[in-house]
Amino acid sequence: PPSLTILGLESSCDDTAAAIVRIGDDGTAQVLSSVVAGQTDLHAAFGGVVPEIAARAHAEKLDICVEQSLIEADLALSDVDMIAVTAGPGLIGGVVSGVMCAKGLSAATGKPLYGINHLAGHALTPRLTDQVPYPYLMLLVSGGHCQFLLVLGPDEFTRLGGTIDDAPGEAFDKVARLIALPQPGGPAIEAATRKGDPNRFAFPRPLLDRDNCDMSFSGLKTAVLRARDAIVAKKDGLTRQDQADLAAGFQAAVVDVLASKTRRAFAQYPDDAPRTLCVAGGVAANQAIRSVLETVSKDFRAQFVAPPLALCTDNAAMIAYAAAEQRALRGPDDLTLSARPRWPL
Ligand code: KG4
Ligand code: ZN
């Protein structure tokens, strides 16, 4: 097959992104550019992503990101063969901005348009970066997502379970706030754990006894809150050591839950297929989490694949790549493509 150049757009949360991916005539994928404009400073004062502010920022920045992605790839819009866009799930104002932008580009150039599920983008990333063969197990852990998927094909996913409340990244961020560490909470907590004693506090490991891949992190967060309050009731504030011990106890609980549920997920792996465990999402940056997933993979004689962090977190290259794979299964969308706030895989 001739080579294929795809422009991807992503705007479903708080990153505006555009990327160019090329599939060579030998089928290998190459990321020619991947531009990500974050909005962290816009939302910082509000303690979370404000959907209306996010949508406006996406609408303002999408065209600039597209232009930048073309410049970095040294291409013109006319060199692009198809246009891919996240059509959900996500904050609807942002998704609408991306879909409208992509429709405009498609209508103006006559290039085919593909609406892509954001979660499918994350789930297919290990194929973009490491040519992982189907089927494989995917643990998606970020600020907004937490689920185990069995990835069987470009549009064939079995959801094995996921969080019934907070995502782990959200828990890291909230716990950091509770124990007076800076945002984003993940890296701050991970750094604090280095001098901490994970056994000083006995935090819960929710749903461990349940024989499925469901997880819960909000009770863990409440347990940290209680432990903090108990300390603060006795003296004025938290010492560095208290922060480190709380952080270490919390992270150890998250690590145990993810390890145990990964074991349960492996139990559902097809018997005769070679085994691979992949991760995606910002929480995959955590070294303790990575290393426990590596250990569990070894126990199940599975390969462990963690794509480079820039492609683990929200980006548009994964959306462009997912469109290239799904093109083998279906035709393009037309201008009736709609943005979907909810869109389970
Ligand atoms: O994938 P991502 O960039 O976007 C969202 O889905 O929001 O993930 C961001 C999340 C944040 O909650 C952040 O605290 C968490 O990933 N994170 C980490 C680490 N680095 C980032 N969590 C644990 N340990 C880390 N080292
Ligand atoms: Zn995401």
Protein described:
Fe cation binds at residues 118, 122, 314. Its cofactor is Fe(2+). Belongs to the KAE1 / TsaD family. This is tRNA N6-adenosine threonylcarbamoyltransferase. GO terms for molecular function: tRNA N(6)-L-threonylcarbamoyladenine synthase activity. The chain folds into two domains: 4-131 and 314-326, Nucleotidyltransferase, domain 5 (2-Layer Sandwich); 136-273, Nucleotidyltransferase, domain 5, CATH 3.30.420. By secondary structure, it is an alpha/beta fold. Helix 4 (118-130) crosses helix 11 (317-326), helix 5 crosses helix 6 and helix 5 (168-178) packs antiparallel against helix 8 (240-266). The model has no long low-confidence stretch (mean pLDDT 96). The strands form two sheets. A five-stranded mixed β-sheet has the order 3-2-1-4-5, sandwiched between helices. It has a five-stranded mixed β-sheet with strand order 8-7-6-9-10, with helices on both faces. The protein has eleven helices and ten strands. Bound molecules: 5'-O-[(R)-(carboxyoxy)(hydroxy)phosphoryl]adenosine and zinc ion. Zinc ion binds at residues 118, 122, 142, 145, 314.
CATH architecture of the largest domain: 2-Layer Sandwich
Let me know the CATH homologous superfamily of the largest domain. Answer: ATPase, nucleotide binding domain
Distance between the termini: 29 Å
Elements, N to C (H/E): EEEHHEHEHEEEHHHHEHEHH
Low-pLDDT residue spans: none
Q: Share of helix among residues? A: 40-55%
Largest sheet: 5 strands, mixed
Structural class by sheet pairing and helices:
alpha/beta
Shape, please? globular
The DSSP helix count reads 11
Reported by name, the CATH topology of the largest domain is Nucleotidyltransferase, domain 5
The count of DSSP E runs of length 2 or more, i.e. the number of strands, is: 10
Strand content range:
15-25%
Strand order of the largest sheet: 3-2-1-4-5
Using the coordinates above, name the CATH class of the largest domain: Alpha Beta
Number of domains: 2
Rg for CA atoms: 21 Å
Small molecules held by this entry: 5'-O-[(R)-(carboxyoxy)(hydroxy)phosphoryl]adenosine, zinc ion
Average pLDDT level: 96
